[in-house]
Task: structure prediction
Amino acid sequence: MNFELPFIPERTAKPRQHGLTMMMDKGLSLREAEHFIEGNAHLTDIVKLGFGTAYVTNKLEEKLKAYKEAGMRTYFGGTLFEAFYARGKFEDYLRLLDRYDMDLAEISDGSIIINHDEKCELIHRLAKHRTVMSEVGSKDSGILISPGRWIKMMSTELEAGSWKVIAEGREAGNVGVFRPNGTAHTMLINKIIARVNPNDILWEAPQKNQQVWFVRLFGANVNLGNIGPNEIIPLECLRLGLRGDTFFEFLPADYAERLKQIDSDDPEEE
Result:
């Protein structure tokens, strides 16, 4: 960091196993990606090329190379896997991963229905050669999954070989572990983390209020994804207590109480 400041929570160091930040690239140009790298590579662990954007992105190979050389792992969004799988082209998808030298891959079923045993077999097969992230939850807000089902799917997918299970939230943050208005399904999440290690879960949390909620619950080193390219540094400041929303989370209790008391005693507030 650029200068010393006490009472800043310790962040895990890259390459991280938890405390991950995943940026969602929804179609950045090569030049935009280079600008992103200059300002954010030191804070970003993973870059996901969202949904099917890899199919239409110019200079895809050059962009992937730039991200990798800057120390970020890249992968294609789960929807692209589903697009191949739905067309009976799983072997072609594997060849695509080879073509672009992707060591990280996602297996999801947010848009289509895949028998869960079959999904776990796909994870197991892919995990022999690559690091796998699998996603749990539907992109359809009308499909409700019980907490027990969430727990079972996450647990079995981790057992099948997933490095992390992604808790569905979509790019808008209004399905899966979130309500349509973007607030967290608190009861669901609490039931999940009672049975699944939170370090094994990457929470899709594109909205600031969602990021704040997770940082307050888990601390600075929570795994968060679907972060916009312009939100990486703001998120890191949330993690470190350097924004108002998490300002008092990491200060000693006596500091926080004293400062809050000073604020309440300020005559200008009368």
